[in-house]
Each structure stands twice: as structure tokens, then as C-alpha cells.
Design a protein that fits this description.
Layout lengths: L3 H8 L3 H12 L9 H16 L3 E5 L8 E7 L7 E7 L8 H4 L3 E3 L2 E3 L3 H20 L7 E7 L10 H8 L4 E4 L9 E5 L1 E10 L15 H13 L6 E10 L9 E10 L2 H16 L7 E10 L8 H14 L6 E4 L15 E2 L6 E2 L7 E3 L3 H18 L9 H4 L2
Parallel strand pairs: 3-6, 3-7, 7-14, 8-13
Antiparallel strand pairs: 1-2, 2-6, 4-5, 5-16, 9-11, 9-12, 10-11, 15-16
């Protein structure tokens, strides 16, 4: 066993290199769309992982997204399980943001678009693997790394890839940033997002209003019912309300966006069922309601399988000098898609940061090295010690 103390000593001299690497990738505008920037980020890490012995492959994106990057490290113990690491190359910021707000350092904080979410995690993953390779780590089965390019838009292109690789994984580590207090993430809310549309009947609001069937009135009534679907451990949010065109015409159309979030999948599914009943039962005679679910993620619930990972990570973090705690968060991420597959997951393993998705986003630069050492130690422990899943689930089976 190498151990996180030795890995920390290996990574510490690379601190300035990590900061410069972070500066480089933050300086690439990489919104989900258009795809050019995310592909550039993926290309950068493709070269870097190849240089340390990874089997790197770019997978063309679909739905207008950039190329996804997969990297495989194959150990000398193929009977051991596969470990899966996931990060994403896209940010929420548009093209031109880097020119307006370039990477900068203020005291011990790095700033810039996507510096924490999640360019810092991508850099941390690379340096963790670099340290393990340099220390001669070979006693493992397979480590698969995915840097996708569409997480910020709900993974329209990479979800299938995440699920395909995850089906054969004994555990997954997600390189999202740690919370502002340094906590890793042990649970995330699931979500369901969609468009509610209402069809009414137009009529002159003064001459013959009785002929009209107001879609706006129906929307108002149903929004109240929708908020009534909230359960303990859930949230409801209605946005983008629109309806009607002119003040003297009864509105013949209305619509809004509905989002549900819940800590438990059972709660989320119950709310979906309640919304389906609302759609079937309009309150204004002559109106019709439709709902199209357009996005969302399964709930990532902490389970009994999460506990051994948290326990192992706690001890490894102590050796790396990292205070350890875990928490849950309402935002979704790549790892949510693995929850229904019962893959044990540790999330928030990137550097410490805050102000995500805002101009105040920052990363705590002193956290780069110890978090990379902690991550490397976790990779070593899990990839070298986990038992494989059910017989027949092998890397070869997935890629004949």
C-alpha cells in the first residue's frame, strides 16, 4: 500500500504545475453549446493522460455536444473490480466569458469561469493518477475515467455512456467540487423538469366572454395544485409562466415550466403521479392540459453501500491532512444516473470551492494538493481492494 501520506509528498512539488494547468483549462471557454470549447478541454486531457500511460479515446458527442473523453488504466490484477471516475468539461458560462473575466488569483483563491465547477476537479483527477503511476501502482483491475462535455445541460449525449460504463463498476468517484466547508457529497436530490401547456378557447373578453375558456385561469388554478404536491424532503418550482396575447381576448393558450426535486426517488415518483392526475383533471371546463417531461435525474440516495466508502475515505483523508465530513446537496450531477444501478458513489471529491455558477465562483488553491492526495489514496484503496460484482461482469464483456 502506497498510502496518502506518500502520495501527498509526491504531489506537493507539483503544486505550481497544478495551478498553471488550472489556469490553462480555465482559460478555455467551454459552455456546453457550442461544442468547440469542451472538445478543446477534452483534447487537452487526452494528451495529458496519454503521457502517463492511459488508454485515451475521444467519443464523438451527439445532440450538438463536444467529444467525450474516456481513459483506461489496466492493472496487473484483472480479477479485481473496475473503478469509475467521472468529471465534466463544460461550464455554465457563455463564450467570451474568459476574455471578460480571466483566471486570476486573489490571496489563496483562484477565480474564473468554471474554476471550481469543475475545471479544478479535472486537474485533481489527472494529478492523482499521475502520482499513482509514478509510485508504481499496479495491483488493481481497471480504472476508467470519463470526462464528459454535457453535464451542465443534463447529459443529453453522455448519459448512455455513463450508464454503460457504470453497469460494470464496483464503485464510482465523482470529481465535482467539495462544498465550501470541504465536505464531500454523499447524497443528491433527484429531479424531474418539464413543460406544462394548457389549451383554452379564445373569445372577445367584452362582447362574448362566456364563449371563452381561459387557459390562463386554468394555469393559475393548476399551479396552486402543483405547489400542493410538495412532500417532506422535496421542492416544487414553477417558472416561465406565459399566456394570452391581448387584453381583450380570452387566453387560448398558457404554459409554464415545472421542476420537482426530492431526496428520495420514491417521493419524486409520487410527485410525478400527482402531476399526472392534475393533467387528467382540468378545472375550467373546455380546457385541456398536457405535460412533457424534458429532463431530470434520479435521486442519489445514501445507502448502506455508501457507508464503507465514507469510512475508508475518512481514514485516507486524515493521512493526507484533510478534515473529513460529508453532506448532501440539492443539485444533481453525473453520479445521479448510477444510483438506480446501485453503484456505490462518493461525490464532491474535487478541490474546495464555492460561488458555483456565479461570477463569485472560486477555488481554494491550498486545497489542490491535499485533495489530490486524498483522491489518489481513495483510488488506490478502492481499485486495489474492491471485490468484483456478479460473475461475468467484466471489462472485456463491455468492450468485446
Amino acid at each position: 500500500m502506497i498510502g496518502s501520506k506518500k502520495l501527498l509528498a509526491r504531489i506537493e512539488p507539483r503544486r505550481n504545475d497544478m495551478i498553471e494547468e488550472l489556469r490553462h483549462v480555465v482559460s478555455i471557454d467551454s459552455p456546453t453549446f457550442p461544442e468547440a470549447g469542451t472538445t478543446r478541454v477534452a483534447s487537452h486531457f487526452e494528451e495529458r493522460y496519454r503521457a502517463i500511460g492511459g488508454e485515451a479515446e475521444r467519443i464523438p458527442g451527439t445532440h450538438g455536444t463536444g467529444d467525450h473523453l474516456t481513459v483506461r488504466f489496466r492493472g496487473k490484477s484483472p480479477e479485481k473490480a473496475k473503478l469509475f471516475l467521472i468529471g465534466h468539461c463544460d461550464t455554465v458560462f457563455p463564450e467570451g466569458e474568459v476574455a471578460r473575466r480571466p483566471f486570476s488569483i486573489e490571496r489563496d483563491r483562484g477565480r474564473g469561469p468554471g474554476v471550481a465547477d469543475m475545471k479544478g476537479g479535472l486537474v485533481t483527477g489527472l494529478y492523482a493518477m499521475e502520482a499513482l503511476v509514478a509510485e508504481g501502482f499496479e495491483d488493481f483491475g481497471t480504472i476508467v475515467i470519463l470526462y464528459d462535455t454535457d453535464e451542465e445541460r443534463g447529459n443529453p449525449s453522455s448519459r448512455g455512456l455513463i450508464e454503460e460504463i457504470g453497469e460494470l463498476a464496483a464503485a464510482a468517484l465523482i470529481l465535482e467540487p467539495a462544498r465550501a466547508d470541504g465536505s464531500v457529497v454523499s447524497a443528491r436530490m433527484g429531479s424531474a423538469i418539464g413543460s406544462l401547456s394548457i389549451e383554452g378557447v379564445a373569445a372577445h373578453a367584452g362582447v362574448d366572454p362566456e364563449r371563452g375558456r381561459s387557459a390562463v385561469e386554468e394555469a393559475a388554478r393548476q399551479i396552486v395544485r402543483i405547489y400542493g404536491l410538495a412532500r417532506p424532503g422535496s421542492t416544487v418550482n414553477v417558472t416561465g409562466l406565459s399566456g394570452g396575447q391581448r387584453p381583450h381576448i380570452v387566453a387560448d393558450a398558457a404554459g409554464c415550466t415545472v421542476e420537482f426535486r426530492a431526496w428520495k426517488q420514491e417521493t419524486l415518483d409520487d410527485m410525478r403521479g400527482g402531476l399526472a392526475e392534475i393533467v387528467r383533471t382540468p378545472e375550467v371546463d373546455g380546457t385541456r392540459i398536457a405535460f412533457e417531461e424534458t429532463g431530470g435525474r434520479p435521486a442519489l440516495e445514501a445507502t448502506a453501500d455508501t457507508e464503507p466508502l465514507l469510512e475508508a475515505a475518512s481514514g485516507i483523508a486524515a493521512d493526507a491532512g484533510v478534515p473529513f465530513s460529508h453532506t448532501r446537496t440539492g443539485g444533481g450531477a453525473d453520479g445521479n444516473y448510477l444510483a438506480p444501478m446501485r453503484v456505490p458513489i462518493l461525490d464532491g471529491l474535487g478541490p474546495v470551492g464555492g460561488g458555483l455558477h456565479t461570477e463569485d465562483e472560486y477555488i481554494e488553491l491550498p486545497s489542490l494538493v491535499p485533495r489530490a492526495a486524498m483522491l489518489a489514496g481513495i483510488i488506490e484503496r478502492l481499485a486495489g481492494g474492491l471485490r468484483p460484482g456478479p460473475p461475468g461482469k467484466t471489462e472485456k464483456q463491455m468492450h468485446p
